[in-house]
Amino acid sequence: MRGLGIVVAGGRRHRRRQIIGWALFALVVALIPFLIADTYSPTVFGNRYTVGLGNLSQAIALMVAVLGLNIATGYSGQLSLGHSFFVGSGAYLTAVLVNDFHWSYLSTLGVVVPGLFMFGVLFGIPALRIQGLYLGLLTFAVAAVFPSIIRLDKVADRTGGSNGLLIDSDLEAPAWAPLDTVTEWLHAVPGVGSRVPDGLTGRQEEAVYKYFLLVIVALVCFWLVRNILAGRVGRALVAIRDNPLGAAANGVNLAAYKTLSFGISAAVGGVAGTMLAMHSGFVGADEFGFSLAILLIVGLIVGGAGTLHGAVVGGLAIQFVPHWSSQTQTLPGTDVALEGPYGTAILGGLLIAIIFALPGGAAHGFRRIKARLMPVAPRPPQAEIVAGDA
Amino acid sequence: MATDGLASLLGVFDISLDKLSNGELWLAQFFRGLSDGATYASVALALVMIYKSTGFINFAQGSLALLGVYLVYVFSVEQGLPVAVAVVCAMVASAAVAAFVERVFIRPFPPDHVLPLVIVTLGLLLIIDSAVGIVWGFRTRSLPSMFPRGAPIEWGIAQLTWRTIGNLGTVFAVVGLLYLLLSRTKTGLAFRAVSSNLESARLVGIRVGPTLGFGWALAAAIGTLGGALVVPDLLLEPSIMLRVLIFSLAAAALGGLDSMVGAVLGGLVVGLARNLLVTFLDLSELALATAVAVILVVLLVRPTGLFGSTRVERV
What we know:
heterodimer, B: 315 residues
């Protein structure tokens, strides 16, 4: 199979193809909120599914959480089962700053990012002496403790204890955002238009605005992390994961880079927490317990550890697999309703299936398919291109 | 000065001197700590069994024990068997489940590749926990204890109950039987050979796979027994074993992940520390956090635990 023909990496055709790809991506990301501003409810095999924009927003926040875990575990190979601790800290920090100090959501990032970076570094220092499995053991326990710390009497009046904390600030679309106008334009477009409402209600406008805000924060996170990982730091982290001894022999400062990776990982996790708080306007202690930590590991492995695309797939998977299962009233051919704990069981099965069948995760699978359909040849040493070289 | 400092320190932790000077309270908490410790010790023993033989921590150990305890519930409360018989039946059943799980999900992976195996046990944890929720629901149930009520020895509020004695006795009996099994039988010899050096064991003709499967089955049976000891003090519901697992991990880490004696002593120490701290420092919400602190300190100061064998590592 030849697919779209071979292009040379970095060549003009490759560049063009990349630009088209990104443009399509941007178009989809920009159009989706208007298409599902009225919740989208397809009926599949007699089951009615409802997907709202909120689900997608939450998935975006989870993508960033998986991205953070990816740095410590996927790239630098330190098994962290306690990433939910950082996500939860970020969420609660945002909630408290917004509630008690009347900050705006986005400005809390100014505290969350440096604060959690420091926290991650502090956490990373003992992690230097604790390796592999032992680190997993410790972080597993840390994750399970987070809810009980939040519920402590001494902090309960700030954190809301077991009741959780309702954040009393709404993210309303500012007057300059032309969301309503755009919706009306799209409504007039033939074909797509029938799916778009002819105007947004206040609640829908808020959801669309939140979505774009989260998309922007997520894009900035992915872009920054990509830049960090594409350079010296990223190579050092991967070297530490693949061969610590070799990395040290080549002058990589293991201690510095490992703590750095925990710092960045925690900071990104904190941003994900802020995003979750922005999305739901509520934080609850049990949301950030050990089940979230395991969920993020599932996202990491299912998406593909050590790849950025993997974080996207992983975030979507851990959001929508439980969502799908909780709304499946009858499994085709049976009368089993997949409610409640089935979602978790399916995720567990998915995790094991991926480890068995596709150890590189979904990102690896996509890459293989893409390499088949749209092969890219490495740039030859000289500018000469040998015809028929596949 | 010094007394002022002490008083303010005590004030921070809400410690009352009345409590501290109450000998009966100390003794009561000591007994309760022993009882809790025995249950942590038995789950820690199961963890140690797996770690010894395969070199990784089975995060699904708590879930296997959870499944076992629900089986105890089915056999004893629903089928009306005597509790002790029900526990034995459940141990056999959970051993069978664990052997099956090991054969299907664990054995396909090379045993020296730890990370995928840990991930698989996390997947198993999700599956087993939610399967228990699906089958039995989230209603809390009470499970009868194997041991009679009442206390043979009492000093005021301090009671040495039959349950405490039973828990301790069970754990020591398990350790004794395990010791006999490992040191006096051929299966035990094979098990020790595999845990000491997998390659050499294979070379001398030991069937490594079935031996590891046997280790899994044994660990699950011990875990189920541990669950049957711990649950009567609490109520049975699907998330119960997570807390127990954390305390047991702390116990196993403290004792050294590959030492059975260490697991038992670690369990007792964690049980005692937990009860004393909770009572005298009023840290009931931080009980789990103390377990984490134990894990952290042990791993930092002495990663091999109190009794674990030292690993030789290149620095």
